[in-house]
């Protein structure tokens, strides 16, 4: 028979050993995991500008194509510029901004700043806006690239952590992202319209609004709506900046 | 017990070999015991995650069975489930951390399912039914055997689901290369959805039982 005392000591020792093993392993593997996360972020940004990068060449391609990182405040002013691996203005790299924190600041009414990446692809200037929102089971995220005048969408890329495979998870497919190419986020009068992910298909919209909509994924209504919300929530932060630019 | 100690059993005696071979066929965890079905449905849309899942379960169950067999005399029966769960959870977190560090894409695809190995009934089942009463070497064989019995079903299911659902094998577009799409063939989107995994598993069970009549219950 085992006494209560034995059981208590046994459990305590077991828990201490497990904690020690797990925290050691986590600490040792952290640098590798962080590098993977950075690479994935770079791959995402590049993918929206139609550049396919693997985990191995993500960093090289990122430095080659993403020529400028800009930080914009909530009033649409440029507060930091990081160009050719040097700071031209300010001291924050757009790449290091945690979008989650900034969007939280926005939601609570505090001043915030958002990142913008500028890429040179085939002699064209492409502006890339990172996106982040809430999906059905976890975060949904992505990047969306615009042409020089912020008129047309140049490319897009979406990802998720926990959406249902075959349903909501379809937002990370090429087919879904390709629909965004050529769509517009401003109407003829210059009003911000964002892009809507439409259940039943963009073709059900009135003719003049089809340019602001894409088809939702079947069986993934909540995830599709999350993408709509994410696009509006993230893109509207740049409207002031874009208007100043124009 | 004492007679066993005198003449040591060879490492791969007939009895030990059976520990590996039985779960592959007649005592298969998925097709015969019908355990671990949930993950078998979830991770088999593509071959690569299914393969990684199989390897992860082989590691967790092999090592876990050995640890439990080594500790079996020290574990108080009253807290045995807690101890078993702690061992499983620790091993699973290790697997998850290693995947995140060295196989990031796969870990993203498997996402929550690595964590859910913890709740895979096969593992608790083997700890409780075998490792608690056996020495470490047979326990290791039993663990690897059962995990591999689970794994090969996963791999077969995912092979067919990937081939018919996406037209690829391990991401390589086989059907496109042999020109099937040019003559009007289309991928079956249904294969990617979980219900088809159940049907493929059902077909495997059917094939197995039609070959091995003893598996058929007499009502």
List the helices and strands and how they pair.
The complex is a heterodimer of chains A (246) and B (219).
Chain A: H1 4-48, H2 58-65, E1 66-73, E2 78-83, E3 86-89, H3 99-107, E4 113-121, E5 124-134, E6 139-146, E7 153-160, H4 174-178, E8 196-198, E9 213-215, H5 221-235, H6 239-245
Parallel strand pairs in A: 8-9
Antiparallel strand pairs in A: 1-2, 1-4, 2-3, 4-5, 5-6, 6-7
Chain B: H1 2-6, H2 14-24, H3 37-42, H4 47-71, H5 80-102, H6 104-110, H7 112-115, H8 121-129, H9 136-165, H10 174-177, H11 194-211
Helix pairs in contact in B: 2-9, 4-5, 4-6, 4-9, 5-6, 5-8, 9-11
Main sheet overview of chain B: none
The sequence of SSEs of chain A as H and E is HHEEEHEEEEHEEHH
Read across the widest sheet of chain A, the strand sequence of neighbours is 3-2-1-4-5-6-7
The total domain count of chain B is 1
Shape verdict of chain A:
globular
The span between the termini of chain B is: 39 Å
Q: What is the averaged pLDDT score of chain A?
A: 90
* Shape descriptor of chain B: globular
Average per-residue pLDDT of chain B, rounded, comes to 86
**E-strand count of chain B:** 0
Give the fraction of residues assigned to helices of chain B: 55-70%
Point out poorly predicted stretches of chain A: none
Content-based structural category of chain A: alpha+beta
Structural Rg of chain B:
19 Å
The percentage helix of chain A is 25-40%
Number of helices of chain B: 11
Tell me the distance between the termini of chain A: 82 Å
Order of helices and strands of chain B: HHHHHHHHHHH
**Total beta-strand segments of chain A:** 9
């Amino acid at each position: 028979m085992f006494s209560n005392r034995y059981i208590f000591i046994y459990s305590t020792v077991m828990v201490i050993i497990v904690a020690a093993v797990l925290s050691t392993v986590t600490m040792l593997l952290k640098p590798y995991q962080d590098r993977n996360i950075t690479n994935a972020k770079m791959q995402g940004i590049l993918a929206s500008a139609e550049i396919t990068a693997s985990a191995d060449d993500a960093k090289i391609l990122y430095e080659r194509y993403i020529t400028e990182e800009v930080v914009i405040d909530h009033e649409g002013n440029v507060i930091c510029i990081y160009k050719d691996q040097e700071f031209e203005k300010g001291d924050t790299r757009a790449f290091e901004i945690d979008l989650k924190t900034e969007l939280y600041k926005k939601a609570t009414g505090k001043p915030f700043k958002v990142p913008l990446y500028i890429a040179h692809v085939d002699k064209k200037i492409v502006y890339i806006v990172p996106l982040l929102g809430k999906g059905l089971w976890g975060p949904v995220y992505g990047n969306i690239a615009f042409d020089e005048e912020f008129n047309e969408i140049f490319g897009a890329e979406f990802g998720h952590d926990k959406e249902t495979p075959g349903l909501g998870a379809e937002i990370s497919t090429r087919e879904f992202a390709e629909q965004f190419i050529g769509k517009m986020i401003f109407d003829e009068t210059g009003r911000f319209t964002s892009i809507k992910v439409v259940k039943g298909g963009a073709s059900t919209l009135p003719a003049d609004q089809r340019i602001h909509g894409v088809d939702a994924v079947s069986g993934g209504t909540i995830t599709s709506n999350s993408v709509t919300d994410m696009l509006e929530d993230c893109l509207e932060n740049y409207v002031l900046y874009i208007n100043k630019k124009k | 017990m004492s007679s066993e100690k005198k003449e040591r059993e060879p490492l791969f005696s007939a009895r030990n070999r059976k520990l590996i071979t039985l779960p592959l066929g007649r005592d298969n965890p998925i097709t015969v015991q019908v355990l671990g079905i949930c993950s078998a449905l979830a991770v088999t849309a593509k071959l690569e995650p299914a393969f990684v899942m199989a390897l992860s379960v082989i590691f967790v169950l092999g090592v876990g069975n050995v640890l439990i067999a080594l500790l079996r005399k020290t574990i108080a029966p009253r807290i045995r489930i807690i101890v078993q769960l702690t061992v499983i959870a620790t091993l699973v977190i290790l697997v998850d951390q290693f995947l995140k560090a060295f196989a990031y894409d796969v870990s993203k695809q498997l996402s929550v399912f690595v964590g859910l190995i913890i709740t895979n009934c096969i593992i608790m089942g083997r700890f409780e039914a075998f490792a608690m009463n056996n020495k470490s070497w047979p326990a290791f064989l039993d663990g690897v055997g059962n995990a591999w019995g689970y794994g090969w079903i996963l791999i077969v299911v995912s092979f067919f689901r990937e081939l018919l659902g996406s037209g690829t094998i391990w991401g390589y577009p086989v059907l496109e290369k042999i020109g099937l799409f040019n003559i009007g063939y289309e991928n079956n989107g249904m294969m990617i959805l979980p219900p088809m995994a159940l049907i493929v598993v059902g077909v495997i069970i059917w094939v197995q039982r039609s070959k091995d009549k003893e598996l058929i219950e007499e009502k």
